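Summary for the funding panel

The consortium committed to producing paired sequence-structure records for every protein in the target list. Below we show the first two records in order, beginning with the earlier of the two.
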Amino acid sequence: MIAFPNIKINLGLSITEKRPDGYHNLETVFYPVALEDALEIRTFPNADRKFTLHQHGMEIAGNPEDNLVVKAYLLMDKEFHLPPIEIHLYKHIPSGAGLGGGSSDAAFMLKLLNDHYQLGVSEEQLEVYAATLGADCAFFIKNRPIFAEGIGNIFSPVELSLNGYQIMIIKPNVFVSTREAFSNIHPHRPKYPVREAIQRPVQEWKDTLINDFEASVFPQHPVIGEIKEELYHQGAIYASMSGSGSSVFGLFTPGFVLPEIDWGTDVFCFKGTLNK
């Protein structure tokens, strides 16, 4: 059985306050985009171990036991005593990009297991399981635009459709650590709250829908800020870093012919049309 985990982008990201537990409260909108990995599972009845993970495509650092798809399987196995499985994960989504690729893989693994083994777990309970694997994992269970707050784990509906808009996502060969991203963050209530700004016309987002991490990340990695400026130069009506980086996306009007730009061999580039 196979599934195609997709990414999310952040539309606005405001860091509103630091919590007593050391984490930060934020507000953002998660929006799904059809840049996808491929995830396949097969029952492996005579295996001498619970799982075998085959990784393809982009290289993933770390041990297989630390991969979120494996953690998702082990979580469900603890609850439902699943048979041994063989997992094939083809990575097309770049890691360390602020696109939620690993979280999406984990959430889609939960859904795959639920469907393949007919476990009968509700969407709401799948979200509970997903939340134990990562703050944004639960988003990918329903996989539709939502307003997120708390540490990115409290969701509420948002009326938003960008269906037909063109998108370009650029990720330079730059890694932004969480510590770097938060190093110059000063929590505050934004002039235009995300929930309010997102209801304005997309043409007004440039000045109202802000990712607070840009102020911290761009001075440390100027190339990321330069990509954002180039996307505007090429005709984007809105451009932003996603999450804490290092990817940047540009939104273009429906029917816009996306530009051909030589970003270099070590830069990831995705072009597509939004369909949500």
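The next record, for a separate protein in the list, is shown here:
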Amino acid sequence: MFTVTRQQKQFLTYLLTDEDANSSVEVVPERGGILTRWQIRGQNILYLDAERFADPSLSVRGGIPILFPICGNLPDNAFVHAGKTYPLKQHGFARDLPWKVVGQDTDGSASLSIELTSDDSTRQGYPFDFQLVFTYQLQGNTLKIHQRFVNLSDKRMPFSIGFHPYFQVADKTALDFDIPATAYIDQRTKEIHPYTGGFDFSIDEIDHAYTEISRHTAGFSDRSAGRQINLGYDDLFTTLVFWTVKGKDYVCLEPWSGPRNALNTGEQVKYLEPRGTREAIFEIRVSEL
């Protein structure tokens, strides 16, 4: 049985549940459209920093933040378009703005559709008119995020899209990764290194970008928790980022449509023609080892 219910917490929260699978997710539209929690048989799949989440002046660290219209940061937090400079902070504005609920369904899955449209505040940093409609769909141990991007402008619209899932882990040394790449860019030093499949979790921060991936699946196994996390993403997504911080119980494996600064450099940047539409999907599946 699938249900979609509302709970009035600090923020209005939508609970999507698959009762037969004992699986549920929580979505908070007004806090950046974020999916904050995912539980399967009482076990948390995602990490959430509850103190940061409770403070609207801070970006959320946890759940699955939405990155749009950029992924990562820009030099001097500046987007240059048609000879004009616009202020655009790290990861864009979608994760900070309230989204509107535009639909829900319990036929074959528990799903919730949310929408973000351009306004005067978004045009200050991104001079385009757009509509985003994302649908979270829970079925069993699988979460799908369907995306629709619409360019409402009369000019070609560049954009990047990404997701920043924080997976909860208790022992990073018990993780085995499947990342479809042979090299990465260290985003702190800008150096390129070969990737051999492991990480040095003794360092303070790991921030690797895999800009040449060979397939559209990735994931990791967690021997401590006894589960496997598998990611699937369509060809809109061409970069994977792995990020974690020493002493924190999470790892982030993030599909991005392009690398940092793509809107300025043009590297792997995506475009929508005037009045054009594009759809994409990102899927996370959890299974037992």
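Regarding this second record: The chain has a mean pLDDT of 97. Residues 21 and 140 are 5 Å apart (CA to CA).
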